Amino acid sequence: MMGSEVPTVMNIAPYRHVLAQPGMRWLMFVGLLARIPATAAGMAITLHVVTSLDLNFTEAGIAGAVTMAGVGVGSPILGRLVDKVGLRPVFAVTTIAQAIYWAAAPSLSYPVLVVSAGLAGFASLPIFSVMRQFVAALVTQEHRRPAFALDSMAVELSYMAGPALAVAAVTAFGSPATLYGVGAGLVLAGIVLFAMNPPIRSAAEEQEQADAAPIPRRQWLRPSFLMLLVVTAATTLILSATELSVVAVLEGAGSTQWTGLVIALWCVYSLIGGFVYGALSRGLSPLVLTAGLGALTIPLALLAGPWWWLIAALIPCGLLCAPSLASTVDSVSQLVPAAARGEAMGLHGTALTCGIAIGAPFAGAIIDNLGPQWGFAAAGLTGVLIVAVAIPFWQRTPRPALTFD
Predict the structure, then answer these.
(1) Residues 228 and 262 in one domain
(2) Residue-wise pLDDT tens digits, 228-249
(3) Are 75 and 332 in contact (CB under 8 A)?
């Protein structure tokens, strides 16, 4: 239960406190805009391979998978470099790398494009991970949950906008112009964040690091943190598989034209859930939220029907999407010392990428063999089982009753 009385009007005081921190509003705004070209990149490359190179979706998928593999490998390495040498050197190198790749991409043959995509993924701007470092540096521990909830909602908005803008741009201007536009957006994002140079650690954390000896990785890369990464991957596996299952169910029902609306409303449910979660006075374990997300996804195998019914059936699991992701980021900030936060957030980003990369083909195999609706059940059940395996390794800390502020 959420307390004996639930107020009729949501208290947004936690968000006001977070946004009142110096520089936070501007940083959140810049972070939202900076992520849009990053989320548009995958769709832009996919459509370029299919339309301009006149290849099939399998070949487009290979290019996307290679890019994701590069991001997954590069994310913790770039995070460690941010910890060691600071933000600006890393953003200078990655911004130049993105400028070179996106300027050349429209003229590359498919084999060269695939190889280049992997290298560009490795040297991608670490926007997602460093934004979480900035948030952790600008707010104190007790206010990080609403701050990370805001960040998760910003990510949701960028994923709603980026791919849609890529499709619209390809339709209106063609894929080469779209690739140039994505590259320009990423370069601009890199330049702006380089100029802003937000802190990656608070003043107290900087002083603590200056006075302390280097922290060995073995002190924080422990079973509880590794299990957190596994649970994080399980979360995006569920989300990736659910998205593909939605597409398959609607295609099977002859309602493909409603796919955009259904997925957009699913994202809206996530935004609502993230807002409510951030307004609570106390969060929940990522294990609880991911298990809940999985458990509420399983019944979609039986509830999925016409597009209008699927919109309603997605509400329960949709409400837990952003809270599940926000809770994993919050847990990273609690389990890892500030001096290693960049590498840890990079590993968290790798876990997110792995879940996405595994979820789609996993659901695709279930859909092809058992039917579209069973992708939901397989995704949800897998998530619940992964959480069950993680429970014995999780650090348990006492938590007070959950109430609204």
Answers:
(1) yes
(2) 999 999 999 999 888 888 888 8
(3) no
Tokens representing residue 383 in the block:
């998530």
236, 355: one domain: yes
The torsion angles phi and psi of 171, rounded to 5 degrees, stand at: -65, -40
Residue ranges in 212-284 assigned as alpha helix (H) = 223-252, 259-279
Secondary structure (3-state) at 404: strand
Angle formed by the axes of helices 321-335 and 223-252, to 10°?
Answer: 160
Q: Whats the size of the chain, residue-wise?
A: 405
Q: How confident is the model at residue 11 (pLDDT cuts 50, 70, 90)?
A: low
Q: How many helices (H) and strands (E) does the chain have?
A: 18, 0
Place of tokens 């302390």: 212
Structurally, the chain folds into a number of domains equal to 2
Residue 129, domain CATH: 1.20.1250.20
Taking a C-beta distance cutoff of 8 angstroms, is the pair 82, 201 a contact? Answer: no
H or E segment to which residue 33 belongs: helix 24-47
Residue 395 in this model has a pLDDT that exceeds 70 = no
Which residues neighbour 216 within 8 Å (Cβ) at sequence distance 6 or greater?
none
CA–CA distances in Å: residue 90 to residues 34, 179, 388: 16, 23, 38
Please give the pLDDT value at position 6: 40
Show the CA angle centred on residue 209, arms to residues 15 and 132, nearest 5°. 30
Tell me if 300 sits within 8 A of 317, measured CB to CB.
yes
Half-sphere exposure of 309 (CA within 13 A, CB side): 10
Angle between the N-to-C axes of helices 286-297 and 223-252, in degrees from 0 to 180, rounded to the nearest 10:
20
pTM equals: 0.79
What is 304-330 written as a DSSP string? --SHHHHHHHTHHHHTTHHHHHHHHHH
Comparing C-alpha atoms, which of 190, 198, 138 is closest to residue 17?
138
What would the two tokens of residue 81 be?
């470099």
User: What are the Cα distances from residue 154, in Å, to 205, 334, 387?
Assistant: 26, 21, 26
Question: 269-311: per-residue pLDDT in tens?
Answer: 999 999 898 888 777 889 999 999 999 999 998 877 788 888 9
For the record, the structure tokens of 254 come out as 């002859």
Shared domain check, 197 and 51: yes
Amino acid present at 196: M
Domain boundary among 178, 205, 232: 205
For the record, the structure tokens of 86 come out as 């600071």
Domain that holds residue 290: 219-405
Looking at the fold, whether 298 and 349 belong to one and the same domain comes out as: yes
